[in-house]
TrEMBL record:
Organism ancestry: Eukaryota, Fungi, Fungi incertae sedis, Mucoromycota, Glomeromycotina
Gene3D superfamilies in the cross-refs: Glycogen Phosphorylase B
Membrane spanning residue stretches: 402-425
Highest taxon of source: Eukaryota
Pfam families on file: UDPGT
Name under which the protein is recorded: UDP-Glycosyltransferase/glycogen phosphorylase
Homology family: Belongs to the UDP-glycosyltransferase family.
Organism, as annotated: Gigaspora margarita
Residue ranges of coiled coil: none
PROSITE patterns: UDPGT
Keyword entries, A-Z: Glycosyltransferase, Membrane, Transferase, Transmembrane, Transmembrane helix
GO molecular function, one term: UDP-glycosyltransferase activity
Keyword field contains Glycosyltransferase: yes
Amino acid sequence: MADQSYTPFYNIYKQVAEENEVDLFFCVYMPVINHPCFDLAWKLGKPADGISTDISIISNAPYKSDPMFGCHANMENESFYDRFNCAIILPLKLFWSSIDLIRDINAKRANVSVDPHWDLRGRVSNLLMLSNTFFGFELSSSDSPLHQEIGPVLPDTFPGLTPVLDSFLANHPRTIYFALGTNAIIYSQNVIIILNAFIKLIEQNVIDGVIWSTVRTDISESLEYANSNVSISTILNNHHPNIHISKFSPQFAILSHKNTKLFLSHGGSGSIHESMYTGTPMLVLPIMGDQPRNAEMLESVCMTLKLSKNNLKVDDIVSKVERLLNEGIFKMNAERVQFLAKVNSKRKYRAADLMEIVLNTAKYEGIKDENGGFKIDNEKLLRDWITPDKRMGFIRGKYLDVYSVAVILLLALGGGFVYTLLTIVRYTYIISRNENRNDQKSLKPKKE
């Protein structure tokens, strides 16, 4: 996908940039996928900023990882073997398996006169990278000033409830909202499992309502899979009195309603941000992308339980819904995270200010081109933001040379001390032994 999309995306971006005389590139950062955006900014000499829900891949914190690679989001409590595997072995494997991909992308770069670049992460090391997350949900780290947490980014206004949804929520005080976003797709058999779990929860009076935003779910395919199951067919035809189906729903308004007690979601960034902002506990069914990592992070703050797409069972869903609704710890932690989300949601204005700073810096650092515009070098533009250790190199930047000499001196001093001590002990022992021998000789009787 990255290889095939490179040239078309590059040409589209270039056309837009030229037609609109673009001053700043604001690129969504996805490893490998969106290289054309950053490459074009570099080629045209325009400043670029990146934004992502997760920049852990370019973070300096080795304890941050990704479940997509078979690791945990937080490696803090993992064994030495797992930490070594995730910090050393897997990155080497990833690089080795990506050599052909990087080579192919560099061939595409050559076709549009862009210099080759061998970092799989792209031309982002010296750019302002905005992370749409916040500490308290995200793992804290001491990172570069170039990396700024500015999330959760949420709009100021949201669509309100329709009369139908407003009436449904008013009459169902224990409602679950079920939505899997605009991209995630699950198998029809899993849809049937989830719906059977809803039926069981309603029959057991654990919940009394479900709002299901289908978006990408194929209802006709699910109907075929349901066969003669009358209850499931009733739901899919939207005739069940306790389950309301709509193609699109005003999600934030639903989550904000006091009668929405739980959110069953795929764990996409937009959904988890809205759930945290409204203080709604979640049951997460991660499917792809950043969703597995989001699910682990939500579990770590104890406002979520997680399902497995490969082992989805009715009883597992029922038991986890019961826990989320009955154990107060989940709601309490959801409210704790809600406060953090609301406070940090104001940082989107800081993000805009940071982008203005980049533009202003480019104005003074740039060189006028033949058209009267400015061209800059993104490798040097934000040099004041780059910590000195990056310019000093790995050994000097980590002060390994200084610490190595300190260790050698300590070993030398310690070795000298030990040697001296052993010499004194040996000398003392020899003197003592000689004195003992002399004493023994003096005590022997003289022969006549």
